[in-house]
Amino acid sequence: MRGGAKVGIVGGVFVLVAGGLGYGAYEVLLGGDAGPGIETASESSEVKTGPPDKKEIEETAKGFLKAWASGDASAASLLTNNEAGAEPLLAGYAEDAHVTKAVITPGPAVGTKVPYTVKATVSFEGKTKPWSYSSELTVVRGLTTGKALVDWQPTVIHPQLTEGATLKTGESSTAAIEAVDHNGKVLDKETYPSLGPILDTLREKYGDTTGGSPGIETWIEPADAQLPNTTLLTLAKGKPGKLQTTLDADAQAAAEKAVKDFSSASVVAIRPSTGSIRAVANNPATGFNAAMLGKQAPGSTLKIATAAMLLEKGLVSANGPVECPKEALYQGRTFHNLKYFELPPSNNFTTSFARSCNTAFIKLIDDTHDDSALPKIARDVFGIGLDWKTGVSSFDGSVPEETGGEAAAQYIGQGTVQMNALNIASITATAHNGTFRQPVIVPQSLDDRQLATASRSLSPGVTQQLNAMMRATASWGTGQAAMASVGGDKGAKTGSAEVDGQATSNSWFTGFSGDLAAAAVVQSGGHGGDAAGPVVAAVLRAGS
Fold first, then answer.
1. Are 73 and 128 in contact (CB under 8 A)?
2. Is pLDDT of 54 > 70?
3. What is the mean pLDDT of residues 466-477?
4. Helix, strand, or coil (residue 523)
5. By CB neighbour count within 10 A (0-12 exposed, 13-18 middle, 19+ buried), where does 115 fall?
6. Rounded Cα gap, residues 181 and 185, in angstroms
7. Residue 153: how many CB atoms within 10 A of its CB?
8. For the CA atoms of the chain, what is the radius of gyration?
9. How far is the CA of 169 from the CAs of 156, 231, 279, 423, in angstroms?
């Protein structure tokens, strides 16, 4: 036996096999007592300081994993730096999640982190199914005892477990759903991982009204009762009820593929004529739906709304002259264009929009005589902040009223403006169509919920000019390269936004093609056309 590990009979069969740390994998029938077979980190009267060494990391991880695999929650929790927090979850692994057997195989330690794989068996009311996943633990020095201990986090038990959440197995609280796109094609988490949190929410809201019956499952029950459960394993399928969504399987597949090119990216596509959401994708595809719940400055993509406001007030026209100097000063705050470019005096507003000239917008602020003009049009025309009822949770954008330099920063999508891909896609859809139609991911007829409505539409003249400027951006402006592969009637707007002084700005891009609008953001992606642009183009090419 490698590492001199001892083997004992602990509440069942205990088998030691080869493992990455040199002390094997732990296989025990849960429900026993760890007893003397569990080895823990060596004790010493001397209180040690500094990071734990290699031997301490191995011994602590070994003792913890053995105790956990054997079902001895008390022994395992004693080897953590939060006994009170660890023991209930460790005990619940057998008692609440009904795990009857666990094989935990550690990999080689990476510094103080020890990765491991878990191959478990879950049994409930005669239904049994294997369950496999990977996670990791970190060994730290105890603050008072100086002992090497497992730094307790819920993710030690399962990588998706959050603070206050619990693992449970039993009859599901709601019936399963079979979500389908607008053409009847089935949508599932395995094929479309970004839809995971959305499908969980839809099941929670509509599962009991779609004619299905519950199954037996293992799930994560969040601390917040308003959030949906996350199903991890299905032991016995119930009868799923069919749920129609507005999504489009082809657009969703393209969105999923496009965001995977970046470490952190989101995209949403909407049909302007109806408000139907055709695609929602995030990478990483974790439990947080950043595409619909994110909150950050959208950069120059918001110039669509700013341009609409300036056009409505008659301060500019698409072909009318505007200044575009390298810099512009407004109430003590200096704004400049990317790489300090400037345009000649013969420049018009369409060129300033297509080239994304910040100073052309800033120099027009005084002429509005109203710092609240942009927040008003964002709410009254584009529906921002009107409590959208999409069918799942969403943040519906915010353009708060500001004064001075902060109001100026809002004109170019900076300052206190907060948006996500859903909001910017909706702004583009409204600009393209002239009227705000609240985005929805399930039909309103499903539950007769009250959708948000804007108080007015854009005039036909302003709508026409906005579309012409966005077409120019896609044809020869900053969106040309990204939109080259998109056919038909098309328009775009690029953006970049610096958040919290980051070295590389976030990349934003939005565009339309026919009756589809899409917007994307790539964290630290740089210029909008370089990173987010290809994501939007891929979705527009695939959508319908």
1. no
2. yes
3. 98
4. coil
5. middle
6. 5
7. 19
8. 28
9. 18, 10, 32, 37
Q: Which residue has the tokens 């023991």?
A: 87
pLDDT (average), residues 265-281: 98
Distance in angstroms (rounded) separating the CA atoms of residues 252 and 532: 16
pLDDT in tens, 325-363: 999 888 878 898 888 888 998 899 999 999 999 999 998
Tokens 């206190």 correspond to 416
**Pairing mode of beta strands 177-180, 241-244:** parallel
Name the residue among 232, 116, 113 with its Cα closest to residue 168: 232
Nearest to 353 by CA among 385, 388, 319: 319
Question: pLDDT tens, 366-391?
Answer: 888 788 999 999 999 999 999 999 99
Please list the alpha-helical segments (H only) found in 179-316: 196-206, 249-259, 290-293, 303-312
User: What are the distances in angstroms from CA 100 to CA 44, 92, 262, 348, 445?
Assistant: 35, 12, 39, 72, 45
Say which residues have a Cβ less than 8 Å from residue 160's Cβ, sequence separation at least 6. Answer: 220, 230, 232, 287
Element (H, E) at 510: strand 506-513
Average model confidence (pLDDT) for the chain? 89
DSSP 207: G
The DSSP result for 338-390, as a single string, is: GGG----TT-BHHHHHHTT-HHHHHTTHHHH--TTHHHHHHHHTT-TTS----
Which string of b and e fits 31-56 if b means at least 16 CB within 10 Å? ebebeebbbbbeeeeeeeeeebeeeb
